[in-house]
Amino acid sequence: METKTDTKKQVLISEKSRPNKQGKKGWRWWGIVLGIITVIYLQISGLTIREDIGGRVFGQIYPSIESQTEIGYQGVIRKRWWHREWVRIVPDDCVRMIIVNDVQLDLGYLGEEKLCNWGVGFDYPLGRYLEDGENRVIVSISDIGGSYQLDIIQTPRVRNIQLLILLLVTTLIVIETKSLPLFEKLSKLERGILVLAIVLRIAYLLVTPHTVNTHDVDLHKEYIQWVANNWWIPSMADCVICHKPPLYYLLTGWLWAVISKFESNWDILQWWQLLLNLGFIYYTIKIVDSNVEDGAYKGCGAYKHRSQVATTAPRKYKRLMVLLPMLFLPSAIIHSSRISSDLQYYFLIAGTYYHYFQWTKTSLDRHLAWGLWMLLLAFLTTLTAIVYIPMWIIMFVYKSAYREYEVEKYKLSITGAATGIIAFLGYKLWQLNFQGYDLINGNIDALVEGIKVEVTGIGRYIGIHRGFMDYGINPWDKGESQYFINYALKSLVHGEFKMITDVGVLAGVGSLMQLVALIMMGIILVYMLKMKGKQWLSNMDLLLAISFPVMALIYYSFSFAYTPTSDFRYVYATLIPMLLLYVRAIMGLKRGLLAIVVRLFPMFMGIGGIMITLTRIVSR
């Protein structure tokens, strides 16, 4: 007769004889880690100007200057043993002179054509003339008029090596994705799309210095540097944007205080921003996974709305309708590595959304607690988070009135988070009012007159300028940038930027994406207007998540009549519930050409974004 001891021995023997699959796969994870470290090393091993010592390091964005004006850049380059010798210098328009430690370098052999190649630049062995430690560098450029700029970046050869390593790392990640918790519930197609999204973000980061496509990066760096130097919170008078909540700047400043002891290249902070963006993507996937299903829509309250033809579109296609635009819109890639508090704000609001949607469906206390704590952290990151408070209050009152919810557990945690939000809001109201700042924008009066809106009245908000089909938006434009719909939708798709590489077919794709975005928003609006009582209740969770941020953006642009106040990036995370509502809206359409076209719209937005991003990466 077989005993328990014999059975246990057989189990142990079988486990010992079983091949160690984890051991065989272990080298892949080590390869992934080593590859990422190598990519980051190559990123920081390039030479860069560390600080400004008179003049501006990277020039202005939109200055208007006289023809053939010469601009002098002065800065400090701190050379370390790991820095490479060769760099690429990209002037706008021509390099006239380079002086290192009071010694003028020889540029004559390069010729006028290379020295004035503002599109590609030229390679130069700058590191050969640098001494260990700090070096004073002066670069003189000339400009024929318009904007001017100077970039010192890594050479294409190094960039190509980085992209090759990134490709190998991606291959290993694709092989190992099934063992990652994030990928467990994703189909093979969705896993591939997610990996592509991450790869495009890293590749874009590698070819885009932190001074390109930014929103006031110098002001953010000033705040971060102050924290790095003092290890505490500055007063509002210590820098231009020191009125902003401190959480992001404390975390980033402390991180920079450590990093700057070894490396002075601010580009490395883009990896921190990318990590925050990956957190935003993580919560986006969790929201999509929990709010899109086959056959039925997960509503809130006492009513659950079922689409009559929901089964005609499988769940994975509905998920792609949300994921593709969220992951691949040109604005999504641009925002993924900018140095600013926006990325931390998006991450925390996405987390707030996730727990909000989960709480509306399950009424679990832990989701209410987590959601409020993440909202508090978002509040400590930027005061814009105030626009997400009403959705919690209204939903809490609604669920309590219908006796669907009563706090049982986590009472202390929920009370603490709610008290923290109220206390911090009250403190900032007092502080900003005492100092004469505005609650939301703080120093709005510091904005220049050139971007002030001259179009007034309701026409600014319901009208669409004839330049809507022109690619991109320019805050200095006195035409279409004056209109809210033009500015908000174009900044949703492309951000506030026009790229010189986006021409021809690519510009046509970008313009068509703007039109598709307008149509999609129109479909959402029509769906909302056609809703009846029970549909309003079943969609209440999404409607609250969308309406208050959008109304706040309209109010913001109305109260402060400057073109950038219509930028969709202030409420960018709201795009998640918008796309979820779009999916609910189009699933009610019967089979036919129209149903096919509107379901392809989100797919087109994602594919168009991939085309534009790949072109930008290759052309740099």
TrEMBL record:
This is Glycosyltransferase RgtA/B/C/D-like domain-containing protein. Residues 1-23 are annotated as: Disordered. The chain crosses the membrane at residues 27-49, 163-183, 189-207, 320-339, 370-398, 410-430, 505-529, 541-558, 570-589, 596-618. It comes from Cyanobacterium aponinum AL20115. Signal peptide: none annotated. The keyword Repeat does not apply. Keywords: Membrane, Transmembrane, Transmembrane helix.
